[in-house]
Specification:
Layout (H helix, E strand, L loop, with lengths): L1 H6 L12 H12 L9 E2 L5 H10 L5 H12 L13 H9 L2 E2 L5 E7 L4 E6 L5 E10 L5 E6 L3 E3 L8 H4 L2 E4 L2 H15 L5 E4 L9 H13 L8 E5 L5 H7 L5 E5 L5 H7 L8 H15 L3 E7 L7 H13 L5 E6 L13 H13 L3 E4 L13 H6 L17 E4 L4
Parallel strand pairs: 1-2, 3-15, 6-9, 9-10, 10-11, 11-12, 12-13, 13-14
Antiparallel strand pairs: 3-4, 4-5, 5-6, 7-8
Helix pairs in contact: 2-3, 3-4, 7-8, 9-11, 12-13
The structure holds iron/sulfur cluster.
Length: 408
């Protein structure tokens, strides 16, 4: 019991005799035993059953769990004191025991003229993470709202074109810190998020446990379909197989950025430990295991990887490992201090045409909110040069910038 209390300081001390309530509290405490002492206990991310067990452990009736579930996931309230449907005494007890909903304040908002919104959330330990909301109207006039969420504070992989990688790495996000990004986007847009892409700051496969927990919560509790979610990776050895074993119905997006190992290593240094052949074999296995095709992301960097020869080589590589692959071309968004340039439209078109004539389906990602510091990590770097807060970091929130133009 002591060790359980050490990890999860729910008010178990009040329970002195083994009883159904004790058993419920113990089993609930066990389920959150990965929390460290310095972290708050958060309600966001708990299932309806967890919330029921929590309510019982506080001496409440089981239906309180249902109420909590409704207030967190349907009403999407930020603060326990807003739960006016539950008794004040229970709200106070929860807070006194260190429970919070688990929602972080929005530290900064940047709105681009095309409606893309980038938020900085300020986490409990003062670290800042980015999350982006991208509204897209389809031909029939209905609007999709995509949330691009971060999975780490910073990123240890240091891809050469990436503002996040340049800022270094601090820590993995907890699962609720991923889920809350989606809720923050919904709050700002005042509408439901329809799609989630794990393509923000960080490498999701280096924080797979929390990413899977967040994916589960977004699917079961926030009710976003698995097929509406995409998990992206630059490639981390042994993780694609692990992900495949969960048989999710979500898309796996692999960031290739080069058609051969030699060039890829110059753009994605971590590729040295994961040869391209091994990565492609794992993608093939992923498809076999899940029946879900893998899509490939390719950032086009002018004069580096955007020649037609690169496209032809890429098509050959993809055909060698299966068929029906999709390539998403991303014309590079220039970032401060980067040696890379944005490719000309003509080069993008020629690259895309070369892939299509090799029977590879291709899309060119429309650059959204270019001036809204749209490249991953750019906005965060404006405020916090490294993921570790220092005295020199400008941590004063600023008013939303509503005047940004989009040129992409
Ligand atoms: S591109 Fe992704 S994996 Fe690479 S450094 Fe940036 S956040 Fe990390």
């Amino acid at each position: 019991m002591m060790s359980l209390l050490h990890h999860c300081s729910m008010p178990l001390a009040r329970v002195v005799r083994p009883s159904p309530r004790t058993r419920a509290a113990v089993s609930f405490a066990t389920s959150c035993s990965t929390r460290t002492n310095s972290q708050s206990q958060v309600l966001l991310g708990l299932s309806e059953n967890d919330l029921q067990q929590l309510s019982l452990s506080f001496g409440q009736q089981g239906f309180r769990g249902k109420q909590l579930y409704h207030l967190i996931y349907k009403r999407k309230l930020r603060d326990i004191q807003e739960f006016i449907q539950v008794p004040q005494a229970f709200r106070n007890e929860l807070e006194e025991a260190g429970w919070k909903v688990g929602r972080s304040p929005i530290f900064n908002t940047v709105v681009a003229a095309d409606g893309t919104v980038k938020l900085l959330l300020k986490l409990e330990d003062n670290r800042l993470i980015e999350t982006v909301g991208i509204p897209v109207e389809d031909d029939k006039g209905s609007v999709r709202l995509t949330a691009c969420v971060s999975s780490q504070v910073g990123c240890p992989l240091r891809c050469s074109f990436c503002a996040t990688g340049k800022g270094g790495f601090s820590r993995n996000l907890r699962s609720h810190e991923i889920v809350e990004q989606v809720l923050a986007i919904e709050e700002v847009f005042k509408r439901r998020v329809t799609n989630v892409v794990f393509m923000g700051m960080g490498e999701p496969m280096l924080n797979l446990k929390a990413v899977l927990e967040a994916h589960h919560c977004l699917n079961k509790d926030i009710q976003i379909g698995q097929r509406m979610m995409t998990i992206s990776t630059v490639g981390v050895p042994n993780t694609i197989k692990k992900l495949a074993s969960h048989k999710l119905q979500s898309t796996l997006a692999v960031s290739l950025h080069a058609p051969n190992q030699k060039l890829r290593e110059t753009i994605v240094p971590s590729a040295k430990s994961y040869p391209l052949d091994a990565l492609m074999s794992d993608c093939k296995e992923y498809f076999k295991e899940t029946n879900r095709r893998v899509s490939f992301e390719y950032a086009l960097l002018a004069g580096i990887n955007d020649a037609v020869e690169h496209a032809v080589e890429l098509a050959k590589l993809l055909h060698a490992y299966g068929s029906g692959y999709h390539v998403n071309l991303i014309p590079f968004n220039p970032i401060e201090g980067s040696e890379y340039r944005r490719p000309y439209r003509k080069a993008v078109q020629a690259f895309s045409d070369a892939l299509e004539s090799s029977k590879i389906t291709v899309s060119v990602r429309q650059t959204r909110g270019l001036d809204a510091n749209a490249a991953c990590g750019q906005l965060r770097n404006n405020f916090q040069k490294t993921p570790l807060a220092t005295d020199s970091d400008n941590l004063e929130p600023q008013l939303p910038n509503m005047d940004l133009a989009v040129t992409g």
